[in-house]
Design goal:
The protein has helices spanning about 10-25, 65-75, 110-120, 125-135, 155-160, 165-170, 175-180, 195-205, 220-230, 275-280, 290-295, 385-405, 420-430, 470-485, 490-505, and strands at about 5-10, 25-30, 45, 50, 80-85, 90-95, 100-105, 210-215, 235, 240-245, 250-255, 265, 270, 305-310, 320-325, 345-350, 360-370, 415-420, 460. The chain is an alpha/beta fold. The longest helix is centred in the C-terminal third of the chain and has 21 residues, at about 385-405. It is globular.
Length: about 500
């Protein structure tokens, strides 16, 4: 008889974990509350254009890259259409205060050369800084798909120091310090608190090579679902879990609500939802009060306000890299706190298959605190009231006005505008206060902000971005850790590497 597993949540963490377990012979059932599984891989359509909801930039697809190896092991690599960003510019960073634009090369050598070209007097520091980033990344076995017997890695003092202090150790120029932290909106960094290892792992992941999905990120969700279903498993959308019944320190079954109301029993259960949502589902007696209090009090990363634009035909060029913009230097750690919102934004033109000269879609993301929408936190979609609608239109105008400073006449290039606030993020992903990166790591209390994949409930495990590292960089790696908690330490990593040695991407 096959071992069985029920996974609560069909986002990226749930689907990767489910696909890996299915590949290892488990019969997997994924229960997803939304109409379609995928979470941050999900898309929506407006005016005949398809928009990604969360995953816009990917890494790890270069030769020997972690994501390339994982997808090859799952047998889905050849199903994914990815486009590499420009070699001379994976990212651009513009400062409105002095109209300066910095272009970050794609790949380690190009990245370093692009920085030294603009700051030749800091060449020694830049080289030492990049070496230090890569040295920190080598401290994590799972990040490098290496066998390990450590549940928690032993980290160096460099890895655990605040990221802003880590940068300042290597470079003197305050402008360059700000530039080196430009990816902060990708991990929700907070000065004095975010550990350098978070900064290092995300930066190395994308410095090694940035890519985008041609068409949409939905192709990855579909491929992962197919792995599960072709192995005899199920991915059930519209199946919101209402209760997780725990008796004698074990889950007996989970129960869904509504049209898919059913009980699902299995040998093992995996939660791919926010831990605070899991606590709500299990009830008060499943976990000790101290554990519940700890999870409830952990700080969450900030949320975001996003615009999805349909551009008029033939008026805005396709840009094959991601663009960041800030009002001035010295703001990169404080975008969410500034009263003059937005002080920074990130925008991109997602590629189509056979992308031509002109872009039809644009995504613009601005980080935002949940406090901005707290007055409407008890409302639901479509019933937030006229004041919320006015506030939302004002925020849309704020973002478009900022884009006008970069591209005069930008407003006239837009055909349609759609927007999502932190409330949208909260309601779609069921994350506390619309957090886009899960729990915020804090170097002042690093163990308190680390969650293991194991829980005090014997057959219940955790996966997803609240465990270890978030996003496309961290979630697939956590999925491996969670799956290995069931099948055995290092067994999946060995198979991933052996498969890649024997077959490459085939």
């Amino acid at each position: 008889m096959k071992q069985t597993a029920v996974i609560i949540g069909g986002g990226m963490g749930g689907l990767f974990t489910g696909a890996i377990l299915a590949r290892e012979g488990y019969c997997v059932t994924v229960l997803e509350k939304n109409a379609v599984a995928g979470g941050g891989l999900q898309t929506f359509e407006r005016c005949g254009e398809r928009f990604d909801t969360g995953l816009h930039i990917v890494g790890g697809f270069g030769e020997g890259g972690t994501l390339r190896k994982i997808c090859a092991y799952l047998g889905i690599l050849n199903r994914l259409n990815v486009r590499r960003c420009d070699e001379d510019c994976a990212d651009s960073l513009t400062y409105l205060s002095d109209s300066s634009t910095y272009r970050m090369g794609n790949g380690r050598e190009n990245f370093e050369a692009s920085l030294i070209g603009r700051f030749p007097g800091e060449a020694v520091g830049i080289h030492a800084y990049i070496d230090a980033l890569y040295a920190i990344s080598q401290e994590f076995d799972i990040y490098n798909l290496r066998n390990s017997n450590e549940l928690v890695p032993s980290l160096s003092a460099d890895a655990l120091m605040p990221a802003d202090a880590f940068i300042a150790r290597y470079v003197e120029d305050v402008r360059l310090r700000d530039i080196l932290a430009y990816m902060n909106p990708m991990y929700g960094g907070v000065a004095g608190h975010t550990p350098a290892y978070v900064h290092a792992l995300l930066n190395v992941f994308f410095i090694n090579g940035q890519y985008r999905f041609e068409g949409s990120s939905r192709q990855l969700a579909d491929a992962l679902c197919d792995v599960i279903e072709s192995s005899g498993g199920r991915v059930l959308a519209g199946a919101a879990v209402e209760r997780v019944v725990v008796e004698d320190h074990s889950v007996r079954y989970v129960e869904t609500v509504g049209g898919m109301k059913c009980r699902y029993a299995a040998d093992s259960y995996i939660s791919a939802v926010h831990p605070c949502e899991l606590l709500r589902l299990t009830g008060e007696k499943a976990f000790p009060k101290a554990y519940r209090t700890r999870l409830a009090e952990l700080p969450n990363s900030y949320s975001a306000f996003s615009l999805f634009l349909v551009m008029k035909e033939g008026v805005f060029p396709y840009i094959n890299h991601t663009c960041y913009c800030q009002d001035d230097y010295g703001m990169v750690w404080n975008h969410a706190e500034s009263e003059a919102w937005p002080t920074g934004l990130m925008y991109m033109t997602p590629p189509e298959v056979n992308q031509g000269q002109w872009a039809r879609r644009m995504n613009i993301n601005c980080i935002m605190r949940f406090d901005e929408v707290r007055r409407w936190e008890l409302t639901t979609v479509g019933h937030r009231g006229p004041e919320y609608a006015v506030w939302k239109r004002r925020r849309v105008e704020d973002v478009i006005s900022k884009m006008e400073q970069i591209y005069p006449g930008f407003r006239d290039m837009i055909e349609e505008v759609y927007a999502a606030s932190p409330l949208t993020v909260r309601d779609y992903y069921h994350t506390k206060e619309g957090s886009i990166y899960g729990y915020r790591k804090d170097c002042e209390n690093i163990m308190q902000t680390q969650l293991p994949v194991y829980t005090k409930v014997h057959n219940l495990y955790l996966t997803g971005q609240n465990v270890n590292l978030h996003g496309i960089c961290g979630v697939p790696l956590t999925a491996i850790m969670t799956a290995e908690a069931l099948v055995g330490r290092n067994k999946i990593i060995e198979k991933i590497n052996q498969n890649y040695r024997n077959h490459g991407e085939n």
